[in-house]
Every structure is written in C-alpha cells, then in structure tokens.
Automatic annotation (TrEMBL), chain A:
<keyword id="KW-0472">Membrane</keyword>
<dbReference type="GO" id="GO:0016020">
    <property type="term" value="C:membrane"/>
</dbReference>
<dbReference type="GO" id="GO:0032153">
    <property type="term" value="C:cell division site"/>
</dbReference>
<keyword id="KW-0812">Transmembrane</keyword>
<feature type="transmembrane region" description="Helical">
    <location>
        <begin position="285"/>
        <end position="308"/>
    </location>
</feature>
<feature type="compositionally biased region" description="Basic and acidic residues">
    <location>
        <begin position="1"/>
        <end position="24"/>
    </location>
</feature>
<feature type="transmembrane region" description="Helical">
    <location>
        <begin position="36"/>
        <end position="62"/>
    </location>
</feature>
<protein>
    <submittedName>
        <fullName>Cell division protein</fullName>
    </submittedName>
</protein>
<feature type="transmembrane region" description="Helical">
    <location>
        <begin position="245"/>
        <end position="265"/>
    </location>
</feature>
Automatic annotation (TrEMBL), chain B:
<dbReference type="GO" id="GO:0005524">
    <property type="term" value="F:ATP binding"/>
</dbReference>
<dbReference type="InterPro" id="IPR003439">
    <property type="entry name" value="ABC_transporter-like_ATP-bd"/>
</dbReference>
<dbReference type="InterPro" id="IPR005286">
    <property type="entry name" value="Cell_div_FtsE"/>
</dbReference>
<keyword id="KW-0472">Membrane</keyword>
<keyword id="KW-0067">ATP-binding</keyword>
<dbReference type="InterPro" id="IPR015854">
    <property type="entry name" value="ABC_transpr_LolD-like"/>
</dbReference>
<dbReference type="Pfam" id="PF00005">
    <property type="entry name" value="ABC_tran"/>
</dbReference>
<comment type="function">
    <text>Part of the ABC transporter FtsEX involved in cellular division. Important for assembly or stability of the septal ring.</text>
</comment>
<dbReference type="GO" id="GO:0022857">
    <property type="term" value="F:transmembrane transporter activity"/>
</dbReference>
Length: 329, 219
C-alpha cells in the first residue's frame, strides 16, 4: 500500500461504511441539470412558444370566424318582387315561393308577410304604416342546403319567365367579397404564423447552441474516458428534450390560459356592447379542439427541435475532435 | 504495445512540431517524456492517446495501424489507455466518487457492480475521505489524485500522465511518483511527461527527451 493510502488508513475503517452508504445515493446526471445558460434557454423557449401559440390561436380564430361568416351568408338567398301596375303581389309571391321550393337544394322558401315587412321598414318610415299604400317590394327568403346549393341560374330563368318583376339575389357578390376578405386575412395570418415559427426555430436553435457551448468540456471528458458518440449524444438529447419540453410546456400553458380567460371574459360579458362588438368580429373567442391540438403540436415540435439541435451539436463537436488532424485535413 | 516509426506532425502549413519520431513502448515499461516547454510533449501524448493523427509516418497502437482505426473503434481503444490531463479535467458537478466512476458509467455498467472497486481505488490514492466532495473544494494535489484514479479505474494497459506533478509541492510529487511506480509494478506501462528533472532523478527509468522536434531516448 502506498504512502498516500497509509495517510488515510487510520480513518479508513470508520469511513468505509458511511462512504459506501453515501455512494448509494442517486448519481449526479451526466449533463448538469441547471445552469444560467439552461435557465435562459428555458425562458427563451417559453416566450417564443407562448408567442407562437398566441399567433396560432389568432389564426385559428380568424379562420373559423371567416368560415362562419361565409356559411351564414351562403345559407340564404332572397327573391325580391317589385310592385308594378296590375301585378297581383300575393299571387306573384306564391308563384315565386312555389318555383323556389321545387328546386333541389332548397330547404324552405318563406314569404316575408306584410307585418314583418312593415317591421323591417319601421326604423325609416315609423310605426302604423299601411303597407298597401306604398309601392314596397316584398321578399321571399329561400333557405339553402349549404352542402348542395340549388342551380341559381335556372331558378333565375324560371322566375323571369313566370314572375317578370322578381329578382333573385343569391348574395354571390357579397359572399365572394367576404370570402376574398376572409382568405386574405387567413393568408396574412398564416404568413405571420410562418414568420413567428421561423423566429421560434431560429431562437431555439441558437439558444440551444449557446447552452451547449458551456458543455463542451463535458463532451470532451466523456469522449476521452471512452464514451461512445451514441452515448454522449443520447445523454445530451434527453437533457435538452426535457429542457425544451419544460420551456415549451410553460409557454403553451400560458397561451392556453390566455385563450381560456378571453373565452371566459366574452361569455361573462354577453349582451354588453364591448362583448357584442368582439363577438361580432371573432365569434365566442374559443379556439376549439384544432387550436388546442395546434398548441400541443407547437410544444412537441419545440421540444423535439431543442433535442435535435443538441444532438447535432454533439455529433459535430465529436467529429471535430475525432478528425484529429492538426492540419485540418 | 505502441510503436512510432518516422512520425512527423505539423499544425496547418507551419513547420513540423515533431520530426522523424521513432520509438516503442513495451508492455509494463516505465518512461519519462521530457524536454523544454513547447517542445511538443503534450502533442506527442495526444498522438499516443489517438486524439491527433500524424501528418506522416506510422503509428501502431495495440497492433492496429492508426491510419486504419475507424471512429467507432476509438472508444474501445481509449479504454485501454488511461490519461491524466495537466488540467485534470474533472467535471465540477460530479463528486470525486462520480468522477472516478465515470469511465465505468459511460460503458453502461450498473453502479452496484463497480461501487466497491471505485471506493477501494479512492482509498488507494488517499481520497477515501474526500469521495463525496465536489472538485472545486479539492486541493490541487487531491484533484491530481482524483484524475489519476479516474485514469486507472478501467485498469488500462498504459497510463499517460501530462505534468502530473506540475501543480503539487515536492513531497506530494514524490508520493505521486511512488503511486505510479507501484502501478507499474502491478503491470501497467507508464509514460510521464514532465520537465521536472528532480522527479526524473528519483527513478532509474527510460528517458525520452524531445528537443527541436526530435526525440532522443536514453535507456
């Protein structure tokens, strides 16, 4: 036994047992769990994930709202019959209703009766209006099956033949403009989302590489004590997957909380002018299952991205060490 | 065990740091590698440890030609070579015990299978009381011994030590030297890179002196 060991022998017997017991405690992780770079990485990931999820939620909201507008408008068409000399308005309305009802794809055709027409005009002409005294156009509301709409061209032709003063308005122009506007809004939203996700990807990649830079000496030591590249890469990948998921989960949860709070706020303020305004624009502020699934996807992607970046950083680092050519050849 | 034949090495387009180096390290041998600062001792150790490739010449390690060793074979070969770095390279977030056990841990071995061996070795190098201490708390000599224990835990066939007494006082340097001699008696070949002439005078061993990029050997 050496002199070094002899120095220690005096206490060796007493030390052996507690030392052995202490050695059974949980081993320190290969990659240190927390450092400043690691905490900064979690913060960056959490913030970027939060912003990405908010953008995703906003795009989902706009897309759903646009599709809601489109469907609501496309659900109805109107037949307008203008009064003219010698026209039997009631007969013309009945004929128009009959023609419309006969078409496949029409769910119902309803004549707007005198009282309802008077109510429509009440804001402009006042109460107590006798509708027969004025040449007021009358309406037939045609409810349409959105999935298989009727042939509006033949309906228009038949109406022109039987009721010349009838005009069919299928709201096409209005729907087309709304659809164009909705599509533009969604396209813009998707573009913003793509930019946001790209910024997230770049931030996560660079923040991960920054955090990895502080671990170079660990990779080197592991390499020199005979660890295989696969082992080192796996250790770092697991560590950074956890770090990434932790940050992404915080960001994603914060975004979900924001959505829930908005949804709750809008439901709590129903029938107030502010909520009416918001509801008119964005529906009930709920992002639905697709939105929440999107948030989960963003969280998973960010976690995977962090792990993949650390993996490639380790592999590159190791291949740089292993090339081992002083002339770089 | 390790053979160099006309090995030359240059960094980039600079002059050759090592020129026509030829030697053989037999099993169970003991040698000092010496020379003035900047003579290329650490570079030669890196060649021995397979972390550098020569720009010319042949290196044969454990019967394998260095130029034919693949990246996947390196970890297995490195496990047969123990290295004590000049700057210790201990991981600060791991205790002395965990640092010494690291080579076994990275091989996927269960802690229960090596716990006793690690504790025995730590006692052998005189660190029995310091096994649960983190490296920043250790003294220079203790760090050095922890680094030596880590290099020895896998019972390597050869131990390379870069200035192992560079950070310790002369009495501790002598004790470390005795540790290396005892290790050599147990069958491990030892190469100690040092410019400490006093240390070399204490042992009658082969001296490999690097100077001006060339190597002279005094048996």
């Amino acid at each position: 036994m050496t002199e070094l060991a002899e120095q220690h022998d005096g206490q060796g017997a007493d030390e052996a047992k507690p030392a052995s017991e202490r050695a059974q405690r949980k081993m320190a992780p290969i990659v240190p769990s927390q450092n400043i770079a690691g905490r900064a990485l979690i913060s960056v990931i959490a913030i970027m994930t939060f912003l990405s999820c908010l953008t995703l939620g906003a795009v989902t909201l706009v897309r759903d709202t646009a599709s809601m507008w489109e469907n609501q408008i496309a659900r109805e068409a109107t037949i307008q019959i203008k009064p003219s000399e010698g026209l039997d308005m009631e007969a013309a309305l009945a004929a128009a209703q009959r023609i419309a009802s006969e078409f496949a794809g029409v769910r119902a055709a309803r004549i707007v009766d005198r009282a309802a027409t008077a109510r429509l005009l009440e804001p402009w002409l006042g109460a107590g209006l006798n509708i027969d005294e004025l040449p007021v156009p009358r309406l037939v509301i045609v409810t349409i099956d959105e999935d298989s709409p009727p042939d509006f061209a033949s309906m228009r032709a038949m109406l022109a033949a039987e009721v010349p003063s009838a005009m069919l308005d299928d709201h096409r122009t209005w729907v087309d403009r709304l659809v164009a506007m909705a599509r533009t809004t969604v396209t813009l939203g998707v573009a913003v989302l793509v930019l946001m996700l790209s910024a997230t990807v770049l931030s996560v990649v660079f923040a991960t590489r920054g955090a990895m830079a502080g671990n170079g000496h660990i990779i080197e030591v592991l390499h020199f004590v005979g660890a295989e590249a696969r082992f080192i890469a796996t250790e770092f990948r697991h560590h950074f997957l956890l770090t990434g998921m932790k940050g992404a989960a915080v960001g994603g949860l914060a975004a979900v909380v924001v959505f829930i709070v908005f949804s709750w706020w809008s439901s709590m303020n129903l029938a107030t002018p502010e909520a009416d305004q918001a509801t008119a624009l964005f529906g009930n502020f709920a992002i639905g299952v697709t939105g929440y699934a999107g948030v989960a996807l963003v969280v998973a992607v960010v976690g995977a991205l962090t792990a993949a970046t650390s993996h490639f950083t380790v592999v590159t680092y190791l291949s740089d060490i292993d090339v081992g050519r002083p002339d770089g050849g | 065990m390790i053979r160099f034949e006309n090995v030359g090495l240059r960094y980039g387009m600079g002059p050759e740091i090592l020129r026509d180096i030829s030697f053989h390290i037999p099993q169970r041998s003991f040698q000092f590698l010496s020379g003035p600062s900047g003579a290329g001792k650490t570079t030669l150790l890196r060649l021995l440890f397979l972390s550098l490739k020569p720009t010319r010449g042949l290196i044969n390690v454990f019967g394998k030609d260095r130029s034919r060793i693949t990246r996947h074979e390196l970890p297995m070969l490195r496990r047969r070579i123990g290295v004590v770095f000049q700057d210790f390279r201990l991981l600060d977030h791991m205790t002395t015990y965990e640092n010494v056990a690291l080579p076994l841990r990275v091989r996927g071995r269960e802690e229960a299978s090596y716990r006793t061996d690690v504790i025995e070795l730590l006692k052998w190098v005189g660190l029995g009381e310091r096994m649960h201490v983190l490296p920043p708390v250790l003294s220079g000599g203790e760090k050095q011994r922890a680094a030596i224990a880590r290099a020895l835990i896998e019972q390597p066939e050869i131990l390379l030590a870069d200035e192992p007494t560079g950070n310790v006082d002369p009495p501790l340097a002598r004790r470390l030297l005795r540790l290396f001699i005892e290790l050599n008696r147990l069958g491990t070949a030892v190469v100690i890179a040092t410019h400490d002439l006093g240390l070399m005078e204490q042992v009658d061993a082969r001296r490999m002196i690097l100077s001006g990029g060339r190597l002279d050997i005094y048996d």
